[in-house]
Amino acid sequence: MPDNRPSGTYRVQVRPDFPLHITAELVDYLADLGVSHLYSAPLLTAAPGSEHGYDVVDHSSVNPALGGADGLLRLSRALKAAGLGLVVDIVPNHAGIAVPHLNPTWWDVLRRGQKSDFAHFYDIDWSRGRLLVPVLADAPDALDDLRAEDGELRYFDKRFPIADGTGDGTPREIHDRQHYELVNWTRGDTELNYRRFFAITDLAGLRVDDPEVFDATHAEILRWYREGIAQGIRVDHPDGLRDPAGYFARLREAAPDAWIVVEKILEPGERLPAWPVDGSTGYDAMCLLNGVFVDTGTEAFFDTLDHHLTGVTTSWQDLVHQAKYTVATGCLAAELTRLADLAPTVEDAPRALAELAACFPVYRSYLPAGSRYLAQARSEAGRRRPHLISALDQLTARLRNPADELAIRFQQFTGAVMAKGVEDNAFYRWTRFVARNEVGSDPARFGTTPDEFHEAALERQQDWPGSMTALATHDTKRGEDVRARLAVLAEVPGDWTEVVRRWTRFAPLPDPSLAHLIWQVTVGAWPISRERLQAYAQKAAREAGTGTCWLNPDESFETAVRQMVDRIYDDPALHREVADFAASITPPGWSNSLGQKLLQLTMPGVPDVYQGTELWDHSLVDPDNRRPVDFAERRALLNRIDDGWLPPVDATGAAKLLVTGRVLRLRRQRPELFGSYRPVYAEGRAGHHVVAFDRGGVVAVATRLPIGLSRHGSWGDTSLSLDGHSWTEVFTNTSYGGNRLPVAELLHTYPVALLVKE
């Protein structure tokens, strides 16, 4: 890999209400903050009103809603003037089809069917007849609302093409002659004959394994690379691709010097395949960073509390299996049917394939690599469903073969099953300690020991030094500082047990597991407005799917959820108690926040700062984490810091801005200080409250388990052994020397320190 990595990136959610010309106005602030690259949300033309850009409808142009080509040029000039680069987010797996007439390739496929020049662009199973388009209302006479107007078929505000020579007759007669069939929207999950992104029928799977499709969908992006507009590429959702390894080889050949990172969600212990990329987008680092601030010794307390609140004992593994099997046979039934059709001679093929997917321990394999995961799934599936052993054996014999169409599509299937079953369901149902319910984490692993952290960091330094490190993304379930504060609960299990048991009795909910989730989120994000908490609680309830769901909301259950949340705000005693408890865990949460931010910014890899998180960020799941950011406030605070202000650790969050800016600037100015990794261990009675490492001239020091530390009374004799050189602490600009440095002196002002060898 070329050494082309940024020193640090800053993610900006460029969107219609924050377009490219406004993004360009941020560049001077980002340069002052210390990043080397702006990291943008997708910029190609997306569906009207898209707030995220992952539903591209035209790969040949910059989204006019973001400012178009002129807007991108303006941003590029601003970046170059400031000496910054650009990392762009791209979406090779799927395209937006919600508004067919705005996607020229999809429109042509609808109009001409298999004879379209773009029929091979999309992953369509034409053997099953006409292309099914699930847009009709759930009514037997929905087609009666079709109209033939201006050479098109219209269904309310939706437009569809009419094939040449088929426009005579009634709208129904015209419809019946088309290459597509408009069907009830509920049939999308069961009968669809085109691949989609997860269970979203408005996102159709692309065949970028076809060189012509690759060229057409990447021409504009690669032009940005060739012309020096973009220097880095973030690749969205590679698990949906038919041939990820081939795709990345082609992308690297086309952009040999680009910094390429891939949105690959790795399960704990899983390693990134040996693709020609610089690394992942950092969910694996996020898992480590949050986990090392969790007291692993209190897991049993939370097991007991969870059992008391819910009345049941369910393992994470069993819950995940149940959720994944339900997804595989439910909202992904169309994909399962397409798989089973490839094994017509295998009795019980649909159930056996669903069972294998439910037991698959990672998102997907990349055959021939990862075949051991198939063996694990086969073993577990046989244990759970012994009556399917014959079918399982027949299927796994084929699923091992990288050239078998069944094996290729099964790899695409398991990632969708994992994402929908775990991230969008099980995370909302298994709620014993939701600080660990995060993308890339295993909630069954209560925390991370310092030794485990160091081991993983050493591996990153050796294998993927250019990989991104992250603490928040637009896909995380909770903001980084919510997770940091929730980690404090592991240090006060008795206090938490007492209050949450009382609150659940005072403001009950029919689903006690969901109630425990909402109470944890409430204290983790407090103070939070009623409107934001209500929106979160409703989404959590529908994702959990136990009392209500997205397709058929249960009004009585959702009313109970709203009443529970309302009571937090309307009952003075409860409101005061929630506020008081949140206040009690907020200062140690600040300590955790600064610690995990320092480690993220200094550990091996390329640190990314998600927009706004240089101050405290108590966002929740999207769309909450896409709210506008007050950049004027951040500019003003950064200017005060640069004028010599040493901010306290308080509600302003300026201490976090101090840490973020000082580390990012150091990484940009002196990258040679970050070329190696060595764990540093503190000695003394409170040594286990320190996590520290030497990057080759820079030593990062963070406090962990701050409440436990306070019970010690002080750092006492705890010290760090250094090499006798003189050191400067970056945040306070204090000099230190000698072989042993007292931690109490080093961490007198902040719970973190960054030492630079003089």
UniProtKB/TrEMBL annotation:
<dbReference type="InterPro" id="IPR006047">
    <property type="entry name" value="GH13_cat_dom"/>
</dbReference>
<feature type="domain" description="Glycosyl hydrolase family 13 catalytic">
    <location>
        <begin position="13"/>
        <end position="662"/>
    </location>
</feature>
<dbReference type="InterPro" id="IPR017853">
    <property type="entry name" value="GH"/>
</dbReference>
<dbReference type="InterPro" id="IPR012767">
    <property type="entry name" value="Trehalose_TreY"/>
</dbReference>
<protein>
    <submittedName>
        <fullName>Malto-oligosyltrehalose synthase</fullName>
    </submittedName>
</protein>
<dbReference type="InterPro" id="IPR013797">
    <property type="entry name" value="Maltooligo_trehalose_synth_4"/>
</dbReference>
<dbReference type="Pfam" id="PF00128">
    <property type="entry name" value="Alpha-amylase"/>
</dbReference>
